[in-house]
Amino acid sequence: MVARSFDANDRPRRHPDSSYREIGGEGGLVVLPGRAEVKVLNPVGVKIFGLLDGERTLREIASEVAAEFDVGSEDALRDARDFLSDLDAHGMLAE
After folding, report:
1. pTM: predicted TM-score of the whole model, two decimal places
2. How many CA atoms does the CB half-sphere of 9 hold within 13 Å?
């Protein structure tokens, strides 16, 4: 599967069949039912995945990450975009 490229104004959404769970503030897991695939996430990944509701733009998501994790907004946007491409390549985002 080829990952999409994401624009700052895109409104990404988790795959509707996915579920995720934070584990003790140290990260979390994403599971796609029906597939033998689990993705381990760090705390930033869990934060981003939790915000993928199709309502927030990528820029809004990155802004929340920048505020919570004390990172620059452009760095947060770049890292969030890369993370979304990785999730997309694994089929963990809605079309």
Report:
1. 0.89
2. 0
